[in-house]
Design a protein that fits this description.
heterodimer; A: alpha+beta; Glutaredoxin; 2 domains; elongated; B: alpha/beta; Rossmann fold; Ubiquitin-like (UB roll); de novo design (two linked rop proteins); 3 domains; 8 strands; about 10% strand
Chain lengths: ~190, ~425
């Protein structure tokens, strides 16, 4: 019989104190500082193309989304054509070619969260924010999007907001999270 | 008590430090391998241990490494696939969070075995916390002389970088992943040439899963120290869905499904009865309760026509509509298809539409053979994405055809009131 041993070794989604190391340098830099820092990273890479997604992320954080201007800037820094970069920007879920809110709420709708009532989570948030899927609140605070499995199935239903995962969601918990995000300065603004 | 190898340094709500990792024999394998063993000997140890890839395919890791041709070009690369996006799977995140140095030592040993100069850890955006933990600990390893030029005074030099992806399931496919790393649109490529010959930047490249990489250091340490003979082979099983204690459990490879669900995960909640299980994420076939005593390893499952996949066990109970569950899974795949080849791009939305009709009471009997035919068509695709995608569908029609027909007969989902 193994039950005691297993209980002891159950790994309960350790969330080490990452907040301390989370920072959003690119959003705080001036455009000039950011450009210098990106150039440095590109130089260090084996090939500049390796840095394409990183550069797009950084410019997205600074511009709020990947505007045409941001895409041109990325093209110039990386020596890739705007089309090559659009092949990436239109492919990935976490690169936004259109304006999004300060916080992008990605609600998981894959099978485990589905079993744990993802639809009611989605409906609840949509009702609270007064927006549909893909919509942004008029104050520019929140964008609501569905997303595929976040890899937090042990804490379903789950959602991801600006790099941070929230699990075992209930209406009460969602209200608290939205309230905190409204009131506080963003603790982090990662890959949204 | 079962031996714990991959999660032995579990510290609750934080990652194990390098000192804690060392206290349990961490970096002993690397230190001795670099000084006493050749790369070929390290490769041989992993080959002899029979380590099989934990990302889903189960290909022997040592064999993959040996596919780099003799005298192949340099630089060579090692890529660790931490893109883990298979629904139900979160083992890679667990190992990274619990014991980041186990991964780092595994990457260094892998790189030594194949004489690679640079390694990448390719990581998905929702694992940003894992990326940050790795970056922090890589810096620690650099300071300790475990990375960089002439590691621990040897001739071997290596650096490891964390590469952030921007989130698509297909990036977990090794050839798509390499395209992604090279800043290309991540469509899969069809070998040959294989990555071990012409991978990243057309140079020899080994791509491995996080859990596989985590197994390397314990295997090498065991082989060098002559420890307890055979290394204790464990597997990380992620259990989710209708169980009392969803979680990631390290158990001996081949633990019976019943034991994993009933004992480790605490069984199903009160009032729930087992109806079906996906044994290894959503690209595997449904298993029914008569297979409850199956040992959960590659060969036992293959023998009965199933796949271990990632070992992510998703449990469904009698209140779950299997048509709706399969529709959700097909919807996932339809959205994540890269769109490169037609059967996948067109076939999955077509299947989704048929399942939607059946689920909403507009199904017809002739849809069942049509779905069967589609699930066969979708094996004729460019990569393994679509054959995986239709595994739940094909097994739905095999094991739950009555339930599908009931939807059609009643002109509604029987699970909806």
């Amino acid at each position: 019989m193994v039950s005691c041993a297993i209980l002891k070794w159950r790994v309960d989604s350790p969330a080490p104190s990452v907040d301390a190391v989370l920072s959003d340098k690119s959003a705080q830099m001036t455009p000039k500082e950011l450009e210098e820092s990106l150039k440095e990273d590109i130089e260090k890479a084996y090939d500049p193309r390796e840095q394409a997604v990183d550069v797009l992320y950084a410019l997205q954080r600074q511009h709020g989304h990947l505007s045409d201007e941001a895409m041109r800037e990325a093209s110039r820094l990386l020596g890739m054509t705007p089309l090559e970069l659009d092949e990436l920007a239109t492919f990935y879920d976490f690169l936004y070619r259109e304006p999004v809110g300060k916080y992008v709420i990605h609600v998981c709708d894959s099978v485990v969260c589905w079993m744990h009532g993802h639809q009611s989570v989605m409906d609840y948030i949509a009702e609270r924010l007064g927006v549909g899927l893909g919509g942004t609140t008029p104050d520019g605070m929140f964008t609501l999007l569905p997303t595929c499995c976040l890899g937090y199935c042990d804490r379903a239903p789950a959602m991801l907001i600006n790099g941070r995962v929230y699990g075992e969601l209930t209406g009460e918990k969602i209200d608290r999270i939205l309230q905190e995000l409204r009131e506080e300065e963003p603790p982090l603004a990662l890959d949204r | 008590m079962h031996p714990q190898v991959l999660l032995q340094n579990f510290k609750g709500n934080r990652s194990a430090s390098i000192d804690e990792y060392r206290a349990n024999g961490g970096y002993e394998a690397l230190t001795r391998a670099l000084l006493e063993r050749t790369p070929a000997e390290v490769e041989q140890m992993v080959l002899a241990a029979g380590l099989r890839g934990r990302g889903g395919a189960g290909f022997p890791a040592g064999k993959k490494w040996s596919l780099i041709p003799e005298g192949a070009a340099h630089p060579r690369f090692v890529v660790v696939n931490a893109d883990e996006m298979e629904p139900g799977t979160y083992k890679d995140r667990m190992v990274i969070h619990v014991d980041p140095h186990l991964i780092i030592e595994g990457v260094i040993l892998t790189s030594y075995a194949v004489s690679a100069e640079k390694a990448y850890i390719f990581i998905r955006p929702s694992y940003e916390s894992s990326a940050l933990i790795l970056e922090r600990e890589l810096e620690v390893a650099r300071r300790e002389g475990l990375l960089g030029q002439n590691i621990l005074g040897s001739e071997f030099s290596l650096d490891i970088v964390v590469h952030r992806s921007a989130g698509r399931y297909i990036c977990g496919e090794a050839t798509a992943l390499l395209n992604a790393l090279m800043g290309k649109r991540p469509n899969p490529k069809q070998p040959p040439p294989y990555a071990t010959e012409k991978g990243l930047w057309n140079l020899p490249t080994v791509v491995g899963n996080v859990e596989t990489t985590a197994c390397v250091a314990p295997i090498v340490r065991n082989a060098i120290t002559g420890g307890s003979g055979e290394p204790a082979f464990t597997k990380l099983y992620c259990v989710s869905g209708k169980v009392k204690r969803p979680g990631c459990y390290e158990l001996p490879m081949g633990t019976p499904l019943r034991e994993i669900i009933e004992e480790a995960a605490g069984g199903l909640p009160e009032g729930s009865e087992l109806k079906a299980v996906l044994p290894g994420g959503v690209s595997t076939r449904y298993m029914t309760p008569d297979l409850y005593d199956t040992p959960m390893d590659f060969d036992s499952l293959a023998k009965i026509g199933h796949r271990l996949g990632t070992g992510a066990i998703i449990v469904f109970d009698q209140h779950t509509c299997m048509v709706a569950a399969t529709l959700n899974i097909i919807q996932f795949f339809a959205r994540e298809s890269c769109g490169w080849c037609t059967p996948c791009r067109e076939g999955l939305p077509y299947i989704r539409d048929i399942l939607t009709q059946i689920e909403s009471g507009e199904g017809k009997d002739e849809m069942i053979p049509k779905l069967r035919r589609m699930s066969e068509h979708l094996w004729r695709t460019y990569c393994a994405f679509s054959p995986g995608a239709v595994s739940p569908l094909e097994s739905l029609l095999t094991y739950f055809e009555d339930e599908v027909r009931e939807h059609i007969r009643m002109k509604r989902c029987p699970f909806r009131k």
